[in-house]
Amino acid sequence: MNKYLQDLIKLSKFDTAISMFEPKIENEKAKLATFVETAASIKASINSIYLEIDDVKSKRTKNNIHLAELKTKLENIAKKNKDISNEKELKALQLEEEIAKEQISFANEEIERLDNITKNKELTLKELQEKLAVEEEDIKEIQVAVDNAIEEISKERNVVYQDRSELLEKFDNKILTFYEKIKRWAKDSAVVPVKKQACYGCYMKINDKTYAEVIKAEEIVNCPHCGRILYKEDEIEEA
């Protein structure tokens, strides 16, 4: 096989490997991000429940104040009973007393209802806090695993970068420029194998003459359809 073609194949494989490292790192980060998002969602729910509990307690306080006012009103009505001079005043006072008692009853029911709501929300809050604690422990464990995985990927990437640099030190500049021009538009498929007499970049069938040149591998051959550099994989690579 032509030496330049061998170097191009190696360089292309290095570049393909390098381009795959970042997605691998992002994939590891995504594993952690899922748990972090879940924890953030739980925290948001906890904050929301705190606000709801504060609102319910505020309503309870208002009802307590209103209840105290009603009790004072009943005491005043009781005092007025001593000074009643006719039946009309008595009926009016009795009506006022009945209304006040109904309002007291309603206020007590409302306070009980608000207390039940607070109790339920505090139970939900406790459950969420426990769930958040578990999630944060999971995040710590996953963070360690992700950091280790990223470290290993970075080591692999550094090895590939080193091998690529060593290859480029002895690379022909004209061949490299030729490769880089194709790589601008073909990305990681600048150098592709031929399988079943088809270019594995554009998947178009190549003619017999070009295919014969690819098999000989004496020169650098471009796909007549897309311009990518072609090579024939040996039987081991194909397997």
UniProtKB/TrEMBL annotation:
Pfam families: CT398_CC (PF24481), Zn_ribbon_9 (PF02591). Residues 67-159 form a coiled coil. InterPro entries: CT398_CC_hairpin, Oxidative_Scav/Glycosyltrans, Zf-RING_7. Keywords: Coiled coil. Residues 27-183 form the CT398-like coiled coil hairpin domain. Residues 198-230 form the C4-type zinc ribbon domain. The keyword Coiled coil applies. The keyword Cytoplasm does not apply. This is Uncharacterized protein. It comes from Arcobacter caeni.
